[in-house]
């Protein structure tokens, strides 16, 4: 797609502080973009879930938050990238209630539901890249 990137912030996720920082940056940028408060909460929740997964399952990685512009619309795009173990069964991982740890298994399906666009690319042994976008309406 013809997306133009206007602004970007990169937050390394190496410990719990990174999760908090990514969340704060998401809140800050979504507020600045004038997302309503419900959408701001959706965005910050999505960022927390993706950052938490990176920390938990890959050990480290990064969250990229971008302001993008495409066919007259402005949006906030989250990219969560890691070089961890990857996900062998994506269908299973996307299922509400599936967890390989002792979580609720609500993270990934939650992110998909909260955002307007969602994509997941992963390769076992190589890592995972998840993108999620919310458009301003
Ligand atoms: N970045 C990742 N790298 C490797 N595996 C992942 C990654 N993110 C998610 N997974 C796998 O997908 C499963 C589902 O993730 P999801 O976030 O939906 O649930 P959870 O983390 O187990 O629980 P919750 O997020 O509700 O606390 C995880 O249990 C894990 O096995
Ligand atoms: Mg999770």
Number of strands: 5
H/E series: EHHEEHHEE
Structural class: alpha+beta
CATH class: Alpha Beta
Based on Cα principal axes, name the global outline.
Answer: globular
| Gross CATH architecture | 2-Layer Sandwich
Count of discrete structural domains: 1
Q: What is the CATH topology descriptor?
A: Heat Shock Protein 90
Which sequence of strands runs across the widest sheet?
1-2-3-5-4
Helix content: 25-40%
Largest sheet: 5 strands, antiparallel
Task: Produce a short descriptive summary.
By secondary structure, the protein is an alpha+beta fold.
Key attributes of the depicted protein:
single chain, 137 residues, alpha+beta, Heat Shock Protein 90, 5-stranded antiparallel β-sheet, 4 helices, 34% strand, globular, binds adenosine-5'-triphosphate, binds magnesium ion
Describe this structure in words.
With 137 residues, the chain is an alpha+beta fold. It has a single domain (4-135), classed as Histidine kinase-like ATPase, C-terminal domain (Heat Shock Protein 90, 2-Layer Sandwich). Helices cover 37% and strands 34% of the residues. It has four helices and five strands, in the order E-H-H-E-E-H-H-E-E. It has helices at residues 16-32, 37-58, 90-93, 107-114, and strands spanning 4-13, 61-70, 73-82, 117-123, 127-135. A hairpin with a 2-residue loop joins strand 2 and strand 3 (73-82). The protein is globular and about 40 Å long. It binds adenosine-5'-triphosphate (ATP) and magnesium ion. Adenosine-5'-triphosphate (ATP) binds next to helix 2 and helix 4.
């Amino acid at each position: 797609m013809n997306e133009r990137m206007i602004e970007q912030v990169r937050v390394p996720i190496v410990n719990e502080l990174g999760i908090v920082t990514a969340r704060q940056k998401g809140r800050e940028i979504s507020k600045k973009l004038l997302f309503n408060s419900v959408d701001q909460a959706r965005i910050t929740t999505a960022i927390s879930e993706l950052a938490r997964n990176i920390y938990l399952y890959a050990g480290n990685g990064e969250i990229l938050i971008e302001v993008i512009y495409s066919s007259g619309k402005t949006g906030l795009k989250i990219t969560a990238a890691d070089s961890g173990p990857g996900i062998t069964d994506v269908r299973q991982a996307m299922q509400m209630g599936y967890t390989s740890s002792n979580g609720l298994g609500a993270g990934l399906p939650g992110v998909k539901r909260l955002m307007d666009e969602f994509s997941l690319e992963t390769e076992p042994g190589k890592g995972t890249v998840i993108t999620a976008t919310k458009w301003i309406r």
